[in-house]
Amino acid sequence: MRKIEKAVYLRTNDKLWMDHIDAMSKLRGTVAFSGYAQKDPLTEYKSQAYEMFMEMLGLIRNGTITTLFKMDLSKVVPQEMLEKAEVKVVQSRHPKDKSGDQDSVTHSTFISAGRNDTCPCGSRKKHKKCCGQAH
């Protein structure tokens, strides 16, 4: 996933950087006329260039996040990696089973349960206090 994020970030950054360079060239031409308005062209150039740069950084962040959220990972990530990530089994021990026996019972659950959700094994405990604990 990090490789995909990096590729999307670099592609977005590259495109917006080229647009920024073009905009800076245009700014250089328009700021030259600010001397007629009794303003220092260098100061005007610096302030407008800073605003344009900050806007570009925001556009890079926004474009990267938007692209990542709209991306269909099933087309980008190899199928065997998706299959590996789907099912993970956690083994945990419970102090007693439903029959009241004091022996430990091993339960298997999917990791997809949140830490504060009730445990899918049926113990009515929170997942983090039940099967979510590492033993």
Task: Please characterize this protein's 3D structure.
The protein has helices at 2-31, 41-70, 73-76, 79-86, and strands at residues 89-94, 105-110. The protein is mostly helical and 135 residues long. It folds into two domains: 2-76, Helical scaffold and wing domains of SecA, CATH 1.10.3060.10; 87-129, no CATH class. The protein has a two-stranded antiparallel ribbon with strand order 1-2.
The CATH class assignment of the largest domain is: Mainly Alpha
Summarize model confidence as the mean pLDDT.
75
Q: Termini, distance in Å?
A: 28 Å
Biggest sheet features: 2 strands, antiparallel
CATH fold-level label of the largest domain:
Helical scaffold and wing domains of SecA
**Helical residue percent?**
40-55%
CATH superfamily of the largest domain: Helical scaffold and wing domains of SecA
Uncertain runs: 100-111
- Across the major sheet, the strand order is 1-2
Could you tell me the strand content as a percent range?
5-15%
**Total domain modules:** 2
The shape, in one word, is: elongated
